[in-house]
Structures are given as C-alpha cells and as structure tokens.
C-alpha cells in the first residue's frame, strides 16, 4: 500500500538492512504460481500471493465511482500483494542469517503481519461488493438475535466505522469462535483483530477508500458502501464460520 505510517518506519529500515546483507533478496523467492489449492501445504515464505481480480463491474456501483474503486484495487491492494511477496522473500533469506539482529528481524515480522492483514482484508472488502445492499439469509436472523434487531446492529456497525473516521482502520463484523458470538470490532490498522475472530463483513475506513469521491464526508461513504453490499457473500462467510 502507499499509505505508509509511522509504524512502518522500523520495518522499512529492516528491509534495507536485509537487502544489504543478502543481495538479490527481492527475487530470491519469486513465486512459481498463485495460491495453492485448498488443503495443500504452502511453504511459510513462499512469496506466491497472486492478485485477485474484481468480481463485479466497478462501473455499476451506486455512489462509488470506477475511478475510486480501481485506484483502491490497483494501488493499495495490489501494492500490498507485491510488498507481502517481497517481505516473505526477505524472511526466507533472513532465516539463514543467524547474525541478523533481533530488532531487524522484528521489523520484518511486523511488516509481514501488516501486509498479510492488508491483503486479506482488501480481498474480503472487494469480494463483498456488487450487491443490492438488501440483507438476507441466516446472517440477518443472527444479527437480529444478537443485537435485538437488524437495525440496531447496523447502527452500531456504522457507529464503529465513524469512530475511525478522520484516522485509519477497519470496522469488522466478525464471528468469534471462542465466545461463539457476533461482534462489530474496531481495528486501528491491518494488524488488529479479535483472537479467533472470523471476519464476515469488513469496511475500509482508510481515507484512500473514500476521499476521492467524498473528501472527508465519511458518513456518506458508509451509506454508499452499505448500498453496494452483497449479503449473500456475507451470509456464506457466516455459515462457513459457524460450521
């Protein structure tokens, strides 16, 4: 992604040190292919993450322009895919360097966590767009049961998202496998999330997700986002998490 924050400064230093210690690191673990088939073991630092195409027509969203969606998908999401592959390549080399200082390795591991979260959350984000915004299925019934009404859940989800407006982060509806409950979680960046939480619906509140269309009017962006949700995708995630 292009929105590099102060949290990434140490990670950036780590990349430079690792590259100096091991020339050619960026290409040492070039991916042979995209994602492996389900249940097939994947090497820890394979660096084979492939860009996932948009599953909807970005010209047909209500209130979200094609320019915004393509910029978000091409610059922020694809940037994180490329960065994650590079980081995994550096980690593969760092594993063999027994003299690499812990602080440098820690910077690489923090960046790995950040980029992994960015890739996953962005794929979940784009996969759930392209719908008519009408909630349906077992997830609607479950949210009604957990929050008293679907409208009460939605109000709390919007409130969680607006708590991040003007800053950065994600609003995440998740099924918590440990507590066996549905919750809206506040995530300051790509590394935050509840332990054992399975994301069902994710809302990107970084300004790159809406400023091009709405400036700082985050509430209007949230309205547009909700109008374009494909609740069949959210419902399928919920049923998979419960099973």
Structural summary, described in words:
With about 240 residues, the protein is mainly α. The protein folds into two domains: about 1-30 and about 65-125; about 140-240, minor pseudopilin epsh fold. Helices cover about 50% and strands about 10% of the residues. It contains nine helices and three strands. It has helices at about 10-20, 25-30, 65-95, 100-125, 140-145, 150-160, 210-215, 220-225, 230-240; strands spanning about 170-175, 180-185, 195-205. The protein is globular, with a radius of gyration of 19 Å. Residues about 1-35 have low confidence and may be disordered.
Structural class: mainly alpha
- State the name of the first-level CATH class of the largest domain: Alpha Beta
User: How many angstroms separate the termini?
Assistant: 33 Å
- CATH level 3 topology of the largest domain: minor pseudopilin epsh fold
Sum this structure up briefly.
By secondary structure, the chain is mainly α. The chain has helices at residues 9-21, 25-28, 66-94, 102-127, 138-147, 150-162, 211-214, 218-227, 231-242, and strands at 170-176, 181-187, 197-204.
Descriptors for this entry?
243 residues; mainly alpha; minor pseudopilin epsh fold; 9 helices; 50% helix; disordered N terminus
Helix and strand arrangement:
Layout: H1 9-21, H2 25-28, H3 66-94, H4 102-127, H5 138-147, H6 150-162, E1 170-176, E2 181-187, E3 197-204, H7 211-214, H8 218-227, H9 231-242
Helix pairs in contact: 1-4, 3-4, 5-6
């Amino acid at each position: 992604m292009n929105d590099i924050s102060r949290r990434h400064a140490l990670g950036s230093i780590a990349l430079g040190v690792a590259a100096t210690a091991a020339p050619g690191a960026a290409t040492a673990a070039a991916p042979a292919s995209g994602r492996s088939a389900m249940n097939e073991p994947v090497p820890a630092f394979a660096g084979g993450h492939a860009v996932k195409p948009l599953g909807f027509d970005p010209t047909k969203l209500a209130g979200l322009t094609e320019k915004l969606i393509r910029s978000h998908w091409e610059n922020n999401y694809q940037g994180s895919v490329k960065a994650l592959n590079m980081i995994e390549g550096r980690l593969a080399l760092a594993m063999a360097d027994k003299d690499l200082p812990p602080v440098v390795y820690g910077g690489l591991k923090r960046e790995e966590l950040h980029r992994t979260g960015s890739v996953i959350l962005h794929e979940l984000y784009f996969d759930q767009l392209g719908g008519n915004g009408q909630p349906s299925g077992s997830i609607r019934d479950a949210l009604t049961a957990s929050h008293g009404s679907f409208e009460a859940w939605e109000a709390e989800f919007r409130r969680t998202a607006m708590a991040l407006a003007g800053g950065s982060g994600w609003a995440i509806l998740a099924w918590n496998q440990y507590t066996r409950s549905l919750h809206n979680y506040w995530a300051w960046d790509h590394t935050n999330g509840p332990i054992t939480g399975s994301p069902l619906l994710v809302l990107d509140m970084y300004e790159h997700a809406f400023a091009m269309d709405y400036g700082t009017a985050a509430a209007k962006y949230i309205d547009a986002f909700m109008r374009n949700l494909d609740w069949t995708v959210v419902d399928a995630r919920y049923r998979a998490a419960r099973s």
